């Protein structure tokens, strides 16, 4: 038994993806190693010849040709199993070796083995590398015979009279393939390959198992031929049976691996993503570059399956694109592949779909030159033909094998691989074309709406400024009516070209419908977007030459910016398109030709209408909740109250911001229902806290419409009595602008509420009138500093001055001062130093639903005894 690493060929060197200089260094080292190995083999053979003198009688010379024929047949009738680029060659060389050890002199067996080996190598002695491997193989063959003879001589003397006489012969024959294996591992190491101990152990076990079978066959066969009549016939049948078993197993294994390879190659091509066919020229080179890794893995798989030194895959993925080549295995010499079309290469002039097999030894001069330029001495070449055109070609160079080149099984496999690869590439090209048609406008070649949505969503990344501009071109219907649709189509194409010239080739540009276009712009400031929109408008409205006429066109541009991150369920492109469309419609109805989207435009009113009509049902079905945000006394850190804030989780729109639906509700008669709902929930919780010995007030926001309701104070008094809550634990917060919008109606209501004993607070103080006269005429008890000033305290001295002034003004009027929007420790400390009374903000807590607020109280506060023996919750650091 032998294996191909036992006799190395050039393709057994490790995969070389490094520089050609590194490959040459490994080859040079291997040549020195081979020469040294041959010298050792010759010297050791001379030594064994002297140690084991043979009988050179004429009656023994007949064994030489018979043994040579035996070695030749053993090497010829081999079973080749290639696994993971390791080529196993199961042969029967142990059988003639055993017979030679039993009956022939050492010199006769050595000469027979060398003759058989050299005759097998003659067909491959073409390149410089092949000669170095032939030298290596000659050295190995010398040792494969010399070592067993030396072992038989030594063990025969040591075991004389002990055990059977054939035992030294068996041990010597078994040691021969082990010598081949060890030398092969050494050669792989010299060639730069990785040698693992576990792999070497498995290889040795495999060699011993198969070698033991072959050696046993040889010994049994010799005994049968020597002692039994017609024993040689039984020996022939036995050898044929073993060979048939090996070949059947090898065939099954190869068929399974071939099927796996076909499946892997087809699936890799099919799953490798969107094809570059039909892409714009600016994107084609990027797509090809992105797919090189995928084609590299396919090429590697083909090389492994065919056990080749090198595979070159030539491809043209796009009919209008350039050819590129992917190489797996040893690097190609510089300038090996001619540039231009595939048909310009003599090796690739391939009619039909058949696999062509070329060898430098018997090829025509043109083919021999092409092989020599590639550094190969044999090649399999097959075209990749699609339904209507040549897609590429596959070259396979120099099979890894101890003796033989590519065979019929390799040709059949490559033909099938090429057929599967070409079919899959053709299908992928067709799918690419269908995908292109599905995502592009047939008239202009630009993206259509689905294509634009996909391209925009792919490019909009968190943290990047993204904007979409919508442009609508007019007068198309007029042109169509006068000259026909063909001329209006030409105007659309021309307009798309003008937009592309302004934007460049990389920006996603779409024709949505008729004369409407959309473009995605990234990383532009508001000023740059406004300038770009004006430039697009100027270019698009330039006169269009139509027939012998010059058509004046008009257009409008609307654009929108992604100001906040969209939810996971929301497409940012859809959101921006909708907003840009609203801005475009606003530009059409207004005086300016360019408009930027604002939340007050168009669709916001429809959504507000939907929210208003659904709000009453939301109150009844539990969609609307009340959250609580705590307020603490800054000096004592005691929890003195909460602000009750409304929240709405809409079944269709999800969690709604209060700024979105509260103004809409306030504009209708439902604001009374909202205020009553929040007040009822707040009083229920205040009553519950009182029952637990906790005195925590609740603040409810009032609308200007509440202040216009003369019956509102009576409803508040009734609710306080019903829940048995002291009026001092209920606070109403009102804005300056809300009161001053109609002070004649608001002030009487405020005075009646103040007479009930409830606390009145001015919210967002500092953003409205904020005058001393204004505060003096309002019956208020608290003033809340607007959070915009509190936010800026840490970085803006003017904001800090405003906050200090408000605190001093409030205290001078005997008012409690509350700072909202406290989010930093430094701001809290500054407020304490300024004498602010109460703080509210994210530093303390966000607004929380009731259950989470109760958990916050338990986790963040402790109960202490107050000045008047009441229980107080104090914030824990």
TrEMBL record:
<keyword id="KW-0812">Transmembrane</keyword>
<feature type="transmembrane region" description="Helical">
    <location>
        <begin position="60"/>
        <end position="79"/>
    </location>
</feature>
<feature type="region of interest" description="Disordered">
    <location>
        <begin position="1"/>
        <end position="23"/>
    </location>
</feature>
<keyword id="KW-0472">Membrane</keyword>
<feature type="transmembrane region" description="Helical">
    <location>
        <begin position="165"/>
        <end position="191"/>
    </location>
</feature>
<feature type="transmembrane region" description="Helical">
    <location>
        <begin position="203"/>
        <end position="224"/>
    </location>
</feature>
<feature type="transmembrane region" description="Helical">
    <location>
        <begin position="134"/>
        <end position="159"/>
    </location>
</feature>
<dbReference type="Pfam" id="PF00990">
    <property type="entry name" value="GGDEF"/>
</dbReference>
<dbReference type="InterPro" id="IPR043128">
    <property type="entry name" value="Rev_trsase/Diguanyl_cyclase"/>
</dbReference>
<feature type="transmembrane region" description="Helical">
    <location>
        <begin position="32"/>
        <end position="54"/>
    </location>
</feature>
<feature type="transmembrane region" description="Helical">
    <location>
        <begin position="230"/>
        <end position="249"/>
    </location>
</feature>
<dbReference type="Pfam" id="PF13492">
    <property type="entry name" value="GAF_3"/>
</dbReference>
<dbReference type="InterPro" id="IPR001633">
    <property type="entry name" value="EAL_dom"/>
</dbReference>
<dbReference type="GO" id="GO:0071111">
    <property type="term" value="F:cyclic-guanylate-specific phosphodiesterase activity"/>
</dbReference>
<protein>
    <submittedName>
        <fullName>Diguanylate cyclase (GGDEF) domain-containing protein</fullName>
    </submittedName>
</protein>
<dbReference type="Pfam" id="PF00563">
    <property type="entry name" value="EAL"/>
</dbReference>
<dbReference type="InterPro" id="IPR000160">
    <property type="entry name" value="GGDEF_dom"/>
</dbReference>
<keyword id="KW-1133">Transmembrane helix</keyword>
<dbReference type="InterPro" id="IPR029016">
    <property type="entry name" value="GAF-like_dom_sf"/>
</dbReference>
<dbReference type="InterPro" id="IPR035919">
    <property type="entry name" value="EAL_sf"/>
</dbReference>
<dbReference type="InterPro" id="IPR029787">
    <property type="entry name" value="Nucleotide_cyclase"/>
</dbReference>
<dbReference type="InterPro" id="IPR003018">
    <property type="entry name" value="GAF"/>
</dbReference>
<feature type="domain" description="GGDEF">
    <location>
        <begin position="464"/>
        <end position="599"/>
    </location>
</feature>
<dbReference type="InterPro" id="IPR050706">
    <property type="entry name" value="Cyclic-di-GMP_PDE-like"/>
</dbReference>
<feature type="domain" description="EAL">
    <location>
        <begin position="608"/>
        <end position="861"/>
    </location>
</feature>
